Amino acid sequence: xxxxxRSAFIDIGSNTIRLVIYExxxxxxxxxxxxxxxxxxxxxxxxxxQVFTAKMIDGIVRILLQFKEICKAYEAAGIRAVAxxxxxxxxxxxxxxxxxKNRTGITVELLSGADEARIGFIGVIHTxxxxxxxxxxxxxxxxEVSVFRNRRLLNSVSFPFGAVNTAKRFAVDGxxxxxxxxxxxxxxxKALEEHPWLQEHHGLxxxxxxxxxxxxxxxxQRRSKYSLPLTHHYMMKAAEVDEIYAxxxxxxxxxxxxxxxxxxxxxxxxxxxxAILHSLFHAARASHYIVSGSGLRDGxxxxxxxxxxxxxxxxRSARNLLLLHNAAPLPHAERVSGYTAxxxxxxxxxxxxxxxxxLLASVTALLYRIGVAVNYYKFPVxxxxxxxxxxxxxxxxxxxxxxSLAADYKTKKRTHQSYLKHKDILQEPDLERxxxxxxxxxxxxxxxxxxxxxxxxxxxxxxxKKLNIRLKAKQTPALEIRAAEALSxxxxxxxxxxxxxxxxxxxxxxxxxxx
Length: 515
Known about the structure:
Blueprint: E1 5-12, E2 16-24, E3 30-39, H1 42-45, H2 54-73, E4 78-83, H3 85-88, H4 93-104, E5 108-110, H5 113-125, E6 133-138, E7 143-149, E8 152-159, H6 163-170, H7 178-193, E9 206-209, H8 211-224, E10 235-236, H9 238-249, H10 253-256, H11 270-284, E11 289-291, H12 296-304, H13 313-324, H14 330-346, H15 348-351, H16 355-367, H17 379-389, H18 397-407, H19 412-420, H20 430-446, E12 455-462, E13 466-473, H21 478-485, H22 488-495, E14 498-505, E15 510-514
Parallel strand pairs: 1-4, 4-5, 6-9, 9-11, 13-14
Antiparallel strand pairs: 1-2, 2-3, 6-7, 7-8, 10-11, 12-13, 14-15
Domain Ppx/GppA phosphatase C-terminal: 330-473
Protein name: Chaperone protein DnaK
Family: Belongs to the GppA/Ppx family.
């Protein structure tokens, strides 16, 4: 029997009903093992009286029963189901909740607008390393707007308009006239008048959640042939979003269906969603757009599984990934990460990199060997792939690539080939940075190459000619010294320094110079 714990979360949204199943292993590491969605368009189907008809409830019941069977197949220990704007704003809310419980056995928790904003914020703040920002979650029937400073939620509001009900109100056959576009802008402006705090925080990034901004992200990435297929933490400038919004706005509905990156179930609501997003961005005088791949469902998980706040987001995320692909002793990975940080500090005058790169080096060192879970003989390339495609939280896309390529570093020439594949994201000096970080990780790994932690303590000190490394060991670290010696030529070529290792085992002292 699987010793891992599985938990399921259902989000009954105004546009889509989603299921996500998380698995958490005994070490505490977690990941999503299944996700599915059904388009419901509840905000579109509801009448002017705001009453859910029997047919609408039947549709929700059918989806929930299907999701319940999936949860059973995955042996989920529990299901937490929540409902947002469409059911919250219905005239017969309590009847809907009771009917769903009676017919499915699932207790549906009704979230207030404040709850929805708070839980979405939890999902974002634990996965993005951003101190302050404006958070906007455009759903089908509501839009939650929050402002946070120094990673603390200051204000939030839920507006009763989203992509679906705005399309229903303003669009004709999926097309918005110029008058309708102005109507949406006026609707948003009027709503903001009651909440002047939003315009008091200009210059912050706008962090977007939900299908509208995810679609915007995919369109942007397809247009630019973006080389890294990640959504979370993707950044867009205002000018680009303005251009995409304008170009989609003049397209017919049929032409919009063919836009690369835009799903066919969103072609008719993308413009109303973008109109809301665009209006809020300019009203708030935000600096740029950031896409969050985490939101309400992630927040629900973190509510019941609080993360370790003592670690940075990047460190937590890397450790989580390591424990999901634990192909080497955890103490070894932690030792290599620690050694890498020591070497980084010792060579500070040589590389001149800011402290952020110390974090990146340590994170990469922690993960340099996870590729063994795929194939031992080619583990560096698999480690690089897992780092690049597993979504390391707390770092940017460029930083993700720095970590990925440093984990696979062998020679500068070989790294240059990988660098060229991501020239759209990486900067010109990054090739040298990757090579230097990679060489530090190689040396750190060599100093515990037996995975036995023979070395109890390592210190490093650099001068103009050499890097002095002093090892205090249980016994003579012959294996580790030989592994380091094999790297000495490349190290000197990279850093212009000879390696000198002083080994001080308990039995006797040994001095080794490698020049």
